[in-house]
Amino acid sequence: MRSTGLNLPAGLRLRQRWDQQVFGNFELSRIFDRNKSSRVMTAPRLLILSVSAGSGHVRAAQAIEAQARLSFPAMQVQHLDIMQCVPLAFRKIYTDWYMALASRLPEAWGWLYRKTDCPSEGRHRPGWLDTTRKLLQQICTRRMLADIAQFAPHAILCTHFLPAEILANHKRLGRLSCPLWVQVTDFDLHQMWVHEGISGYFVANEELAYRLQAQGVPRTHLVVAGIPVMPDFIAPLSRRACAKYFGLDPERTTILIMGGGGGIGNMAALAHRLLKLDANSQLIIMAGKNQALLTALQSMSALFPQRLLAIGFTSEVPALMACADIAITKPGGLSTSECLVMGLPMVLVNPIPGQEERNAGFLLQEGVAVRADDAATLTYRLQRLLADPLQRQTMRTRALALAKPKAATEVLQIMSQAMSAHQKTIETTMKTIC
Hints:
The protein is an alpha/beta fold and 434 residues long. It has helices spanning 10-23, 28-33, 56-71, 88-104, 106-115, 128-140, 142-151, 161-172, 206-214, 239-246, 267-277, 291-300, 317-323, 333-342, 355-365, 375-386, 389-402, 407-433; strands spanning 45-50, 76-81, 155-158, 180-183, 200-203, 222-224, 253-257, 281-288, 308-312, 326-329, 346-349, 369-372. The protein is globular and about 75 Å long. The two termini are 30 Å apart.
């Protein structure tokens, strides 16, 4: 006789109803199992999931996708920014709210970052706020589950903790059969990245691997691969050729300011001050999409002929870095990883409390960067670096030693092995059934 569930405890009945409503049509393992025999030994399918809350998570996914096209042409790789398949209201809350809080109320964001980073409490009973957050995420990401099911990947790699958390729950409940891996995109580890049900983690350094082990993750599930960067950062570039392309003097000491120098004061005034520090230096400022800043700097370049290059949004960052001796940047995981690969000493400006603050701490500890939180300190730090080529060379050597330029390739090699093992498991299961 079919059970009506009336004899079950009320809480369990409610959970079953919830599961039917939210997950009833998205039992991923069942969808993946459908027509298995037609998929055995086909080209491996890797799904990369990112979230466009900040650019770093998406750029890491794009780097892996680009490297796959070069080095793993037989692999089918699909990159999905899950913010493209959630309701508009959820997207605005998740991305716009984060950007607004991080830029306008950084101390509030830092408090929230620290408050939610509680490894010792992470495995205890969640509070009502955490439970509500997870239920909202599950409801708003139903289309993501449908897209995953349609692609039917042999493995999934998440470059953001949101899809990792949602799919780890599916993995624990037996609804997801394929390997589920996570690529951490900072030099720090927040508790939001850590979930039961994750098959493995790619991390930036040994310290993060140690911290994950301390939380019970087996060492065999950890790969210290680094943070993936686009293949163009790895290809050898000629400083002389790149400088000639941009109309720069390859013999001059070159300072690169990335992202328009957000948070370090009036950029036109700052550029004027920096160019007066050393008559033999030249300045590249990447203004991004800040058209007003770009226009002001281009007008100002007439005062410093052939010493100031102002450039808007560009895909030629590797070539610009090849021209530079020092980079001024915010300490995002991706931008600083790119600097490391290019061997660029860094001056870190105004890190957002939270992940950027901790990224800065790591890079300072490793001797590849100095820090400046205001325009006066930035001028002072640069003056010292410009006067000390030996320190710059030491920082460059340390940066190259710390860099992991083959991160994307290593990630893809491990994922290829995971997908091969998963396909063999399916094949064995099919033979057993037959």
